[in-house]
Amino acid sequence: ANKSEMIANEAYHFIGDVEVKSDSYFLAADDIEVFTSDNSTQAKGNVRFQDDTYLITGDLLSAKKVDGELIAKATNANYQDISVGPGGANGYTEIISKTPTSVFLTDATYSLCPVNKNDWLIDADSIELNLERNRGIADKATVVFYGVPIFYLPKYSWVLEGRGSGFLTPDYDNYKEASQTERSFRVRVPYYFNIAPDRDLVFAMSY
Cα separation of 174 and 134, whole Å? Predict the structure, then answer.
């Protein structure tokens, strides 16, 4: 940090281009306070937090170790799943709570499109990503395609990685028939059914 001070016997204050590193995570911010008495950390201003699976950026973050596991909570944050490379899930959330086995998002979006190029996304009141069970569950979810809400689901569940039943990426086609003067368009939303290891089915809704 540019400046550091001890504010108590077991509390430290770091100011300006602060970076805190350990074997399992990285934290950077404008201002960070570390409390060794309860293994907690408070960070604010241009916060960047990264562990083995997620990258989180935002304005405010608190972290605490409980039974050897780090629990991180950030507000008004952007997040990205970096465990699978550049194509990982990403979005924005008012509140994100991250543990080694789960991620809970409040008033959040979720997309597998490239960062800042969300052709489609899920907008939900809350999203739970269970990393152990490999399942995502969204409450009061709306699927948005090119900024237009397509449909609403009170509860929606999907597989985070690998094969599993769920919606595939929608596609949009704009074309003109030779016999017509006006252009036409088509929107297609496919749903994939993982019936068995050697059987599957795709059902598509088209307009």
Answer: 36
CB-CB neighbours of 95 under 10 Å:
16
CA distance 80 to 110: 10
Q: b/e per residue, 148-178, with b = 16+ CB within 10 A?
A: eebeeeeebebebeeeeeebeebeeeeeeee
Q: Of 82-86, 135-139, 140-144, 193-197, where does mean pLDDT reach its minimum?
A: 82-86
| Ramachandran category for residue 184: left, alpha or beta (phi over 0 → left; psi -120 to 50 → alpha) | beta
Mean pLDDT over all residues of the chain?
A: 90
How confident is the model at residue 181, as a pLDDT?
A: 82
Cβ count within 10 A of residue 19: 12
- Distance CA(164)–CA(170), nearest Å, equals 17
**What's the whole-number mean pLDDT along residues 138-161?**
91
15-63 residue pLDDT tens: 999 999 988 889 999 999 999 888 899 999 999 999 988 999 999 999 9
Among residues 137, 103, 140, 143, which one has the least CA distance to residue 125?
A: 140
Q: Is 29 helix (H, G, I), strand (E, B) or coil?
A: strand
**In which element (H, E) is residue 97 found?**
strand 90-98
CA distances (Å), 21 to each of 58, 110, 197, in order? 18, 28, 43
* Eight-state DSSP code of residue 177: -
SS3 of residue 202 by DSSP: strand
